[in-house]
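Input.
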Amino acid sequence: MGEAVDRLQVAHANRPLYLFLNVGLHWMIFWWNPSQPAAPGQHLRIVDARGTGHWDVDPRVHSPLAGNIPFNANTPPLYVDNNRVIHTNQAVSLDCMTWTAQGALQHQRDLDFLETCIQSIYNAAAAGQLPGQNDPSFECA
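Output.
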């Protein structure tokens, strides 16, 4: 998360956007909004898997709900609780190789949610809700 924030504060210092954080086969989406940082004491925190330690998250990183990503009964549970704590053990899976005994993808709901997120971002961009363009100097070669 820290490396992503370091990059965002240079590449998108004033531009709100969605942030996908991926580790291995798990991911989480957040809302980066540098113009509206969380109020003091209202920022997100990451808790370790054992629940024994936590780290404060940059106040410009918000829950995906702030960016209007649609969580509902058909999506995986939100990994940010009502106390603004990020539970990494609830990250969404990218596993598209594990099948159930019935021949269905084990993590189909997670994969569907990824598609929903991408479609929501596309719709927001098409509606002009995500202004600006990437600085060409930050584009991948």
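The chain has a mean pLDDT of 88.
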